[in-house]
Amino acid sequence: MHISELETPALLVDKRRLDANIQEMADLTSSHGKRLRPHIKTHKCVELMRLQLGAGAVGITAAKVSEAEVMVNGGASDVFIANQVIGDTKASRLASLARRASISLGVDTVAGVQFAARAAREHDVNLGVMIEVDTGLGRAGVRTINEATELVRCLLAEPSLHVLGVFTHEGHLYRYVSIDERRHAADAAAELIREAGAVVANELGAAIAVSVGSTPGAELMASQPGLTEMRPGVYVFGDRMQCRLGREPLTCALSVLATVTSVTTDGRFVIDAGLKSLASDRLPDDSSYGEIEARPRWQFVMASEEHGVIVHGGEQVPNPGDKVRIVPNHACTCVNMHRHLHLVIGDEVVDRWSIDAQGCIF
Ligand SMILES: Cc1ncc(COP(=O)(O)O)c(C=O)c1O
Fold first, then answer.
1. Per-residue pLDDT reduced to its tens digit, 233-250
2. What is the pTM of this model?
3. What distance in angstroms lies between residue 279's CA and the mean position of ligand 1's atoms?
4. Ligand 1 centroid to 168 CA: how many Å?
5. CB distance 213 to ligand 1 below 6 Å
6. Given 3.40.30.10, 3.40.430.10, 3.50.50.60, 3.20.20.10, which CATH number is that of 32-237?
7. Residue 21: CB within 6 Å of ligand 1?
């Protein structure tokens, strides 16, 4: 089928670029002796997870229990929730998954340990636990070595919980456009997580996992000693946010196909894709809602729920019914708006995959 036959807005994935991105990250991590545990919140798609596992990923990372449920139903055998699981209902749902797969979760408070321990006891299962360490993002995670030590001691008193290691999301690397500044921040983050890991390993008297995760940090963290695991997510698709940090636009696999619905007399045209197909993320230094492929001078200046407004400036003026492809600002929030990924090679649709965990935010 040709892409012009698709109902729009439709999410397209360039299959060749997707395969190349998956392979490249698998090669990067394996060449540095790191385990790859990709974050599936980016794609929420069982078929795509299978490709990542097929390329050598040791397991997957998820943000939410509901994502983990979908992925275990789709065949995942090793899932790490890189997030806090707070509340008896959520913890119990997670523990029940541990009957069918190896399950681990993040903790950064004694309360988090207690929810996990209660649920594991209730279901008579073991849960793996990773202590979250803040290495600069300023989000979740213990801030001091003393806090990490206190948590390990608390965990050691819980026989149903097994301490696997420490983890961080070095998401503050997104703040640095300059590669030198980014490298500096990555070095500092790696040092902090190694230090926390050494303290935890010492308390346990055993080797542990030291896990980092971000797409902008992948290249910079891969060669760092003392880290054992990487959890990038966006790398599979790429997006404008990654290109702002130096990613080659031709490696971006994801785009939204939209139809021109109006051409106005003031140098603009309207498409049928707005915030409900592209999401509302904006880049820090740019007001655009996305980039129109092959039309670098067109400006995506305005978006409401179902409309996008693009200034064409008199250049290659489109007609109603024409199609445009838009590279989104942020792949993860864009994908969560859709039910299907249409796999394309050139302009041919070669497959359609369900976004199985779409809307799984609980
Ligand atoms: C805990 C955690 N790990 C890994 C990632 C993956 O990072 P990226 O989105 O840069 O690929 C994220 C992203 O939000 C995250 O929150």
1. 999 999 999 999 999 999
2. 0.97
3. 18
4. 9
5. yes
6. 3.20.20.10
7. no
